[in-house]
Amino acid sequence: MIHSNQRVSKYLSKIYQFITISKNSNLSHTYSCLTFTLIKTKLPLDNHNFELTNLMKKIAIISGLLSGLLFGIATPLSKLLLTDLNYFRLAGLLYIGAGIAMIPFVMKKDNNLIKLFTQRNILKTSGIILFGGLLGPLLLLIGLQTAEAASVSIWLNMELVATAILGVLIFQDHLDKFTWLGVILTVLAGVIISIGEGISCVISGLIDTGACICWGLDNHLTAITDGASPQTVTFVKGIVAGLVNLLIGVVISDNSFVLNNIFFALIVGAFSYGISISLYVTSAQNIGAPRSQILFSTAPLWGVILAYILFRGSFRWVHLLAILLLAAAIAAINLLSQNHIHTHQTLEHFHYHKHNHNGKNIPIRISK
User: Fold this and answer.
1) CA atoms of 355 and 81, how far apart (whole Å)
2) Across the strands, what pairs with 342?
3) What is the Cα–Cα distance from 38 to 48, expressed in whole angstroms?
4) Per the confidence metrics, is the pTM higher than 0.70?
5) Rounded mean pLDDT of 101-119?
6) What phi and psi, each to the nearest 5 degrees, are found at residue 145?
7) 70 to each of 65, 110, 269, 275, how far by Cα in Å?
């Protein structure tokens, strides 16, 4: 018992040192330091020694849920903003907001921002900005203009399908039968939504699928970009693409800006496309990417709930059926699939990918 207490005291001392060192750094880095200490000290598994670990896990679970919540509510809130802002203006403001939210991360000395513009990465970075920052949000908002916010919230899971199929066709990835099952169930959910709401909904669904294809390309390009964190990528994509879309929106619009709309759009972008990513990173660093991805995948549910609250829409059975199909798809991909998502933790960096049996990397969604 004395020996065990000495080890616990030594462990807690290390924890205190890490907290002291990390007090001026971001929260997710502090959690990563604590997790690394847990692994290195190899303390016995008992309730007293791992009380702090359990607290960290609870915080990580809450972070994962909040990440999905913040991302999910962006769709109905964007629907509201489209009444006063055109597509370009809103897309620009949302992503500028996301970029602003990432400023604390890029202010760090080890942000590796310059690596995005090296000869090795410049084409990938350009593709990320074009597909993920310019075209993706623009197509989403065009489709959202004529469709129900609840339906679009569900359609956004087509990004999973786009990422998987693009991986097979372009990046030579291999998907097992459970991953394909998840892809099929996700497509089926989108088809049910479209059929249940008529031809205009089908057109909007196709436009939003185009947005998901753009984000699928964004995912793959982000996964193979060397050296930069998701926060750094989000900052560059948000500021550059956001400013371009905003400028186009100002030029083509005859209406003047309303200050309240600008502020609201920036706040939505900062929380839904910026802080949401940081919360996901925090969650994944502490409970692993598979569990974090499942928590994040609650996003469509939050979007549907808020859409009903904001727009007083009547309950549609197709939405419930689609959500059930998405839940089955998430279970197939994250729990049954042999393409396990896993993470490599160190004090300095964090990788986001999953390996299949052929050694190829299949990126999961880490940013928008």
Assistant:
1) 40
2) 353
3) 13
4) yes
5) 88
6) -60, -40
7) 9, 27, 10, 8
What is the chain's mean pLDDT, rounded? 79
Burial (0-12, 13-18, 19+ Cβ within 10 Å), 115: middle
| Residue whose structure tokens are 């753009």 | 214
Q: How far is CA 38 from CA 34, 54, 88, 185, in A?
A: 6, 12, 47, 39
DSSP lists the bridge partners of residue 301 as: none
Tokens of 11: 């462990």
Q: How far is CA 37 from CA 10, 14, 18, 40, 346, in A?
A: 11, 7, 9, 5, 10
Quote the crossing angle between the two packed helices 230-252 and 199-223, to the nearest 10°.
140
Reading the block at residue 165, the tokens are 């199929």
SS3 letters across the chain: CHHHHHHHHHHHHHHHHHHHHHCCCCHHHHHHHHHHHHHHHCCCCCCCCCHHHHHHHHHHHHHHHHHHHHHHCHHHHHHHHCCCCCHHHHHHHHHHHHHHHCHHHHCCCCCCHHHHHCCCCHHHHHHHHHHHHHHHHHHHHHHHHHCCHHHHHHHCCHHHHHHHHHHHHCCCCCCCHHHHHHHHHHHHHHHHHHHHHCHHHHHHHHHHHHHHHHHHHHHHHHHCCCCCCHHHHHHHHHHHHHHHHHHHHHHHCCCCCCHHHHHHHHHHHHHHHHHHHHHHHHHHHHHCHHHHHHHHCCHHHHHHHHHHHHHCCCCCHHHHHHHHHHHHHHHHHHHHCCCCEECCECCCCECCEEECCCCCEECCCCCC
pLDDT for residue 136 is more than 70: yes
b/e sequence 298-318, b meaning 16+ C-beta within 10 Å:
bbbbbbbbbbbeeeeeeebeb
CB 48 within 8 A of CB 8: yes
Q: What are the tens digits of pLDDT across the range 17-28? A: 544 444 444 444
